[in-house]
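Let us practice reading a record.
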Amino acid sequence: MSVLQRFEKRLEGLVEGAFAKVFKGVVHPVEILNAMQREAEAHKAILAGGRTLVPNRYVIDLSPYDHSRLAPYAAALAQELAQSQAEFIGEQAWTVYGDVIVEVERGEGLDTGMFRVTAEVYTGGEVAPVSGPGYDAGPPAYPAYDQGGGYGPPPGQAGGHNVRLVSGDGRTYPLQLGTTVIGRGDQATLRLPDVGISRRHARLDFDGGQVVLTDLGSTNGTMVNGQRVSAVALNPGDMVQLGTTTLTFRVDG
């Protein structure tokens, strides 16, 4: 039995068939799960050792009408979606940081029956707050920074290596363990005065060994070595372009 079939079977017995009534003529949970699977496929990033990293946090925007109808069942649906997506990722032998998290939100401007799925790699750092009734599949599992009783390398270092971004004019931005949000808004950890950069443009997830860059749905996109990316593991010397700003990824030591 496939992941989708198992998902449908679990939905049949959930809240005494309420889903069948709620979704009659509007968006259906199986369509959402299909879209989540496509998002995972589209945002794959190859890590060291040939592992494939995919997003573990999925935000589902529903139309205002669908969201209001679904509100009483949002938590149950999110839990089932998270479980099924975790099964799908496991069958593909892909890697995620921590638990699969699904949140259901109200998407203004969406017509009835339409929805939007946003996917990202979430390592337990700060994430912008979500609005409306949502669901968190449980506290996220954090990457294992503590190797053998220590507290991991100091900020900006991995195994004695200095990990940083360097701008074209020589400014240096050391990377901290965990999450660094790049943008020009107040929520950004690394703020850049570039009008071509979104308020929350991209995120860097540093687990002490690998740095993963994820575009946060920015207006102008994120480029690495001239190629537009959604999520990618950075290698020393990679050129990251956001707006008119170019940053070089450096690992020294």
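A brief commentary: The mean pLDDT is 78.
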